[in-house]
Amino acid sequence: MIEDKNQQRTKLSDLGEFGLIDHLTKNFKVKQKSTVKSIGDDAAVLNFENKKIVVTTDLLVEGVHFDLSYMPLKHLGYKAVIVNLSDVYAMNAKATQITVSIAVSNRFSLEALEDLYAGIETAANIYDIDVVGGDTTSSTKGLLISVTAIGEVETDDVVYRSGAKPNDLLVVTGDFGAAYMGLQILEREKEVYKVNPNNQPDLEPYSYIIERQLKPEARKDIIKLFKDLGVKPSSMIDVSDGLSSEIIHICKQSKVGCDLYEEKIPLDPQVISTCEEFNIDSTTVALNGGEDYELLFTISQDDYPKIKANPNLSVIGYVKEEKEGVHLVTRADTRIPIKAQGWKNFND
Ligand code: ADP
Ligand code: MG
After folding, report:
1. Given its phi and psi angles, is residue 290 left (phi above 0), alpha (psi -120 to 50 degrees) or beta?
2. Does the beta carbon of 39 lie inside 6 Å of ligand 1?
3. Rounded to 5, what percent of the chain is helix, strand, coil?
4. pLDDT value for 192
5. Which one of 34, 47, 229, 261 is most buried, by most CB atoms within 10 A?
6. pLDDT-based confidence at 14, cuts 50/70/90?
7. Phi then psi for 80, rounded to 5 degrees?
8. Ligand 1 pocket, 201 CB below 6 A?
9. CA 136 – ligand 2 centroid, Å
């Protein structure tokens, strides 16, 4: 398992708050022309001229959203950025800036926070966004990290959850259930490690699903693809809580029903084999697993020829009238009502 390998541990109190902020943010470079003033004043200054601005935020709490015994801090920093960018892309917008706020207990060293910020910086570079501010404070226990992401979009290009129309096609990017199954593997290995710390697990057969849990990506590429293809989805949402609850969000807000075809749900072979190993149903995992950070959207059938050859996109269903309801059409051709079952943290 992944342990804190930092030999050198500098106490946060040795730097003080301002020294710490300077140290963590000194490498950040401004890349976006909309960033007028970045870190260093009382507030950042941004200039979007005549574009619409989208803003979204997420709060991640140690012990609730992540477990540092198998989540390296560098990956946590990366993932905290990705989950926010995914929400920006789900509006069909371009992500441009983030702010990062952290609360840390004295259990964390400077080197640990350097790892966290290395992940944030990597994501900022790969996704071409500026870190323009944040806040730093102490917590009595554990780590909290909150990222706010800002993006820009032409007024006519904004896509809401509410625009799906009967006869539209329901389309997804990527595949589903991998992050959830990756978490099952990591939790199993954590238990094995507790019993026998010398055990060296062979995680190679699970490399894809573990990567999907520890290092997810957001679908920036798809926003560009829509532009290139001249496609504007009628509705869109990112899949953070599981396909079923996101489909229900789209249907409720668009006042439509839909049929989702079980056989069309894209699954990676590692998800299928790991589900067999755990004796769980892969469709259930795809529908309710969560943390896929793929995009779910609807398009008019007129746009189908533009997307049909694209290997990143799968048509998984069909939008119907609201009164028809929201159903999964199984491989055995039975129709089961879809219920939201987001795996969020209130019921456990
Ligand atoms: P204030 O007292 O006005 O809240 P701070 O001293 O907290 O200002 O922050 C100084 C500058 O550093 C600001 O630009 C702020 O946005 C930025 N900043 C503070 N904490 C962080 C952080 N964890 N990550 C990135 N930028 C930060
Ligand atoms: Mg502050």
Report:
1. left
2. yes
3. 40, 25, 35
4. 87
5. 34
6. confident
7. -60, -35
8. no
9. 6
Q: Which amino acid is at 334?
A: T
Q: Are 180 and 188 in contact (CB under 8 A)?
A: no
Q: Read off the pLDDT of residues 199-221 as tens digits, 9 standing for 90 and up.
A: 888 899 999 999 999 999 999 99
Give Cα separations from 19 to 10, 38, 203, 229 (angstroms): 13, 17, 40, 48
Q: Is 219 annotated as a binding residue?
A: no
**Single-letter residue type at 72:** P
Q: Which ligand is nearest to the CA of 116?
A: 1
Quote the tokens at residue 205: 């057969």
pLDDT value at residue 7 = 60
Residue with tokens 């609730």: 64
This prediction's pTM: 0.94
The pLDDT value recorded for residue 341 is 64
% of the chain exceeding 90 in pLDDT: 86
Q: Which fold has domain 169-337?
A: Phosphoribosyl-aminoimidazole Synthetase; Chain A, domain 2 (3.90.650)
Q: Which helix (H) or strand (E) holds 98?
A: strand 94-104
Pocket test for ligand 1, best of 45, 136, 143 (most atoms within 8 A of CB): 136
The SS3 of residue 122 is helix
Q: Which residue's CA is the nearest one to ligand 1's atom 11?
A: 40
* 77 CB near ligand 1 (under 6 Å): no
Work out the number of other CB atoms within 10 angstroms of the CB of residue 79. Answer: 27
User: Which residues make up the environment of ion ligand 2, defined by Cβ < 5 Å?
Assistant: 135
Q: Which ligand is nearest to the CA of 26?
A: 1
Mutate to test the pocket of ligand 1, among 18, 24, 25, 143 (most ligand atoms within 8 A of CB): 25
User: How far are the Cα atoms of 83, 105, 265 from residue 76, in angstroms, in the given order?
Assistant: 11, 16, 28
Q: How many residues does the chain have?
A: 348
- Distance from the alpha carbon of residue 95 to the mean position of ligand 1, in angstroms: 21
CA 246 vs. chain centroid, Å, equals 13
Q: Where are the domains of the chain?
A: 12-155, 169-337
CATH class for domain 12-155? Answer: alpha beta
